[in-house]
UniProtKB/TrEMBL annotation:
It catalyses: chorismate = isochorismate. It is an enzyme of class 5 (isomerase). It comes from the Bacteria. Residues 100-122 are annotated as: Disordered. GO terms for molecular function: isochorismate synthase activity. This is isochorismate synthase. Belongs to the isochorismate synthase family. The lineage of its organism: Bacteria, Bacillati, Actinomycetota, Actinomycetes, Pseudonocardiales. Gene3D superfamilies: Anthranilate synthase (3.60.120.10). Its EC number is 5.4.4.2. The keyword Isomerase applies. It holds the Pfam family Chorismate_bind.
Length: 400
């Protein structure tokens, strides 16, 4: 039995209607494949042992046994192996096609005269020192790449309107993997929302077809098109960036080969763009060996892939250790995974980047850069500043 496609031939709802209907506490996810809005909680997914995919499969089976038609699990999982997660079986799920392209800010509420205070965590100079520390670890051997992140904590003079933020993110880049997830901790009276517009597909599954689209190797986008052409050419010619990308695409291919009878890993990366960045990209596609195997659900594939070297490093264990040593703050949900999976195993999971956690007047966001031999601390600092621009622009904040 195959699940219905996220983008149905004749959607019941319009993508714009689902976006307009989002309220904090709901789950929203949109991509080039379609849009999904889920409300209410029929059941929360709890993991006593084993994988989140196993726990989700049990919850989905239980919902189906109770007569729930086409149940899905939706939510987010944090970066660390024992990180927090927010996965639920929603009470109501609505679907539509992909968001339509239009003028990014036309008809959208802005943040007006909102006043912001911005606190970097750590200070930029300390981050550059952390990159130097990572290069020393790489030079000592045993570590090929590590992704170092830094954070910004923003405080507004009024509560941040998450629906307006989400709408601005979707309209700015309708092709992104946009999301808003309630990640409020149990017992916390303040609603906490994870929102973002990720450019990176961790994995999707539809029937027996799987797709992953790792990104690694980046340059900021310019307002000048001639300069953009130069940067695209420079990215394709950069030995450092191609080496960084190769670490990621090779590992993603190795993991998916355990599940797939056929797998196509491009020999050369291409460049894709977002409104703020250019990225080296490899679109990896495969055919599952056994689509009926519960161990090859979209969430199971996502867990097997996470963390890719695009957000952690390689080898994984030394990279985790380097992050723990060099990053001053817990990433939380940043660089984890966000998405949905249905009872048949189909679904989509994106890497939780270009994101922020919003709680009342506070916005907490991260950006990271991949450090390999030859990395320049100042260039990596500039890259993180450029990556902050996705969220900062949506919030109406100029400086990073």
């Amino acid at each position: 039995m195959s699940s219905p496609a996220l983008a149905r031939p004749t959607p019941v709802h319009r993508a714009a209607d689902l976006l307009a209907a989002y309220l904090p506490g709901s789950f929203y996810f949109s991509s080039p494949r379609g849009s999904l809005l889920a409300d209410g909680v029929r059941a929360s997914v709890r993991r006593e042992r084993g994988s989140w995919a196993d726990a989700a499969a049990g919850a989905l089976d239980a919902a189906a046994a109770l007569g729930v038609a086409e149940p899905v699990v939706a939510g987010a999982i944090g970066f660390l192996p024992d990180a927090e997660a927010s996965l639920v079986i929603p009470a109501v799920v609505r679907r539509a096609g992909a968001p339509e392209r239009g003028t990014p800010d036309e008809g959208l509420p802005g943040f007006g005269t909102t006043s912001w205070s911005v606190t970097p965590r750590p200070e930029p100079r300390a981050y550059a020192d952390g990159v130097r520390g990572a290069l020393e670890l790489i030079g000592a051997g045993g570590l090929d790449k590590v992704v170092l992140a830094r954070g910004l904590e923003l405080t507004a003079d009024a509560p941040v309107p998450v629906p307006a933020l989400l709408a601005r993110l979707v309209r700015a880049d309708p092709g992104a993997y946009a999301f808003a997830v309630d990640v409020t901790a149990p017992g916390d009276p303040a609603t906490r929302t994870l929102a973002g517009a990720s450019p990176e597909l961790l994995v999707s599954r539809r029937g027996g077809t799987v797709v992953a689209n790792p990104l690694a190797g980046s340059l900021p986008r310019s307002a000048d098109e001639a300069e953009n052409r130069r940067r695209i050419a420079a990215l394709l010619a950069s030995a450092k960036d191609r080496r960084e990308h190769a670490h990621v695409s090779a590992q993603v291919g190795d993991v998916l080969s355990r599940f797939c009878a056929e797998l196509d890993v491009p020999a050369e990366p291409e460049v894709i763009g977002t409104p703020t960045m250019w990225h080296l990209s490899s679109r990896i596609t495969g055919r599952l060996a056994d689509p009926a195997d519960p161990g090859s659900s979209s969430l199971a594939l996502a867990e097997a892939l996470h963390p890719t070297p695009a957000v952690c490093g390689t080898p994984t264990a030394p990279a985790y250790a380097a992050i723990a040593e060099l990053e001053p703050a817990d990433r939380g949900y940043y660089a984890g995974l966000v998405g949905w999976s249905d009872v048949d195993g189909d679904g989509e999971w994106a890497v939780t980047i270009r994101s922020a956690e919003v709680c009342d007047r506070t916005v907490r966001l991260f950006a990271g850069a991949g450090i390999v031999a030859g990395s320049d601390p100042e260039a990596e600092l500039a890259e993180t500043s450029a990556k902050f621009r996705t969220m900062l622009r949506a919030l109406g904040v100029e400086a990073s």
